[in-house]
Specification:
heterodimer; A: about 110 residues; mainly beta; 5-stranded antiparallel sheet; 11 strands; B: about 120 residues; 7-stranded mixed sheet; 4-stranded antiparallel sheet
């Protein structure tokens, strides 16, 4: 089976940095996705890590360690619009999602 | 480029009634997915099509759920009869192809249909 864990909630202040961790135990692995989902909206693609290491994309960065079954999403210079749920999903020829981490950004 | 389209956006029905959802994927995307997202949970894959063939329907409750993608483009998902526990958002997504690779693997989601079963 697939087991994907991420914290339920995180709160941070505008302008700060937040790191969302994701650990996984899955039968197969082709890569790991991060999606952002605002309340009542569809998930939108943020990043896809296939190899170990850090990938940076503007204010967002994503890290993967396949040997440790671990990834994180780093959000820098937080803005109010970053308040959303962040979903970690493992690609094993189909996507298995974690329950999501709700990030609340406070002024 | 137009995104994934879904309709209706909201639907309220009583238990034991039937309901159907429609999805039109991004043009040129061969693979189409239907997910169920219950409040507070991540999306759960119900069925995956590549063109008009089913790739994976292992988590589809086949006694009440059915889906088709007859011409390899748009798709419908049906529930008959609905139960209270079917209340959820039904998301449709599409990707370029099912062959592994970053561009092919990335799934793009539609706005979803929020189903409430009373």
């Amino acid at each position: 089976g697939q087991n994907i864990d991420q914290p339920t909630e995180m709160t941070a202040t505008e302008g700060a940095i937040v790191q969302i961790n994701c650990t996984y135990q899955t039968s197969g692995f082709n890569g790991l996705f991060w999606y952002q989902q605002h309340a009542g909206e569809a998930p939108t693609f943020l990043s896809y890590n296939v190899l170990d290491g850090l990938e940076e994309k503007g204010r967002f960065s994503s890290f993967l360690s396949r040997s440790k079954g671990y990834s994180y999403l780093l959000l820098k210079e937080l803005q109010m619009k970053d308040s959303a749920s962040y979903l970690c999903a493992v690609n094993d020829y189909k996507l298995s999602f974690g329950a999501g981490t709700t990030v609340t950004v406070r002024a | 480029e137009a995104g994934v389209a879904q309709s209706p956006r909201y639907k309220i029905i009583e238990k034991r009634q039937s309901v159907a959802f429609w999805c039109n994927p991004i043009s040129g995307h061969a693979t189409l997915y239907w997910y169920q997202q219950i409040l507070g949970q991540g999306p759960k894959l119900l069925i995956q099509f590549q063109n008009n063939g089913v790739v994976d329907d292992s988590q589809l409750p086949k006694d009440r759920f059915s889906a088709e993608r007859l011409k390899g483009v748009d798709s419908t998902l049906k529930i008959q009869p609905a139960k209270l526990e079917d209340s959820a958002v039904y998301l449709c997504a599409s990707s370029l192809d099912s062959n592994p690779g970053p561009e092919s693997d990335t799934q793009y989601f539609g706005p979803g249909t929020r189903l409430t079963v009373l």
